[in-house]
């Protein structure tokens, strides 16, 4: 089975569409959305409605912190995120907000756990940026594979029984084998707002038969997304960071 795992779309229609097309071209059998459908970007209605349609077709979808902020009208975020969240909520209909509010914090599928931030207290939205945080995440679940987003930077951690995890930086579009002896934590990067210096959209493609994962990078028209961000009066930095991948 081939599983396409997408995270942090952030209301970026252009990036979402090209990634979905790339996933279809690769013959994926399962689609997973790891949250943060909204926030920062200019097309929240389109992205939420597309995600809802995909769920109706069998996709899995969980909640991210920006989804929660919009659904619950929370304001405890950075200034740019707070402005974008308020703007987003004003544009969504009650049916869209209800869809976001009903998303689960995590989902289990066979030996795979899907969570937006970390298996360690999923609703606290903790970042996995180092081996210590990865260790706490892996220690909070017995699943062989944990897939996360949230940091917007792709990463892979291997953990042998009784050992601390080992960090591995995956190369773009290059398959990385899973170890038979290890548990794995995969941070899948970001569709709609990459922050690893590469502005191309990123998603993870897992092949359960070949026992490997690839971080697929797909260029998209980030200039168009930035143009819409400016046209709607959202903070200029939200468009600029799309261009520089930061």
Feature tags:
single chain; alpha/beta; Purple Acid Phosphatase, chain A, domain 2
Description:
With 246 residues, the chain is α/β, with parallel strands linked by helices. It has one domain (2-244): 4-Layer Sandwich (Purple Acid Phosphatase, chain A, domain 2), CATH 3.60.21. Helices cover 34% and strands 21% of the residues. The strands form two sheets. It has a six-stranded mixed beta sheet with strand order 3-2-1-11-12-9. A six-stranded mixed beta sheet has the order 4-5-6-10-7-8, with helices on one face. The protein is globular. The model has no long low-confidence stretch (mean pLDDT 96).
Write the layout of secondary structure elements.
Blueprint: E1 2-6, H1 13-25, E2 30-33, H2 44-56, E3 60-61, H3 65-72, H4 79-91, H5 94-101, E4 106-109, E5 112-115, H6 131-139, E6 145-148, E7 155-159, E8 166-168, E9 176-177, E10 183-187, E11 201-207, E12 212-218, H7 222-231, H8 236-244
Parallel strand pairs: 1-2, 2-3, 5-6, 6-10
Antiparallel strand pairs: 1-11, 4-5, 7-8, 7-10, 9-12, 11-12
Helix pairs in contact: 3-4, 3-5, 7-8
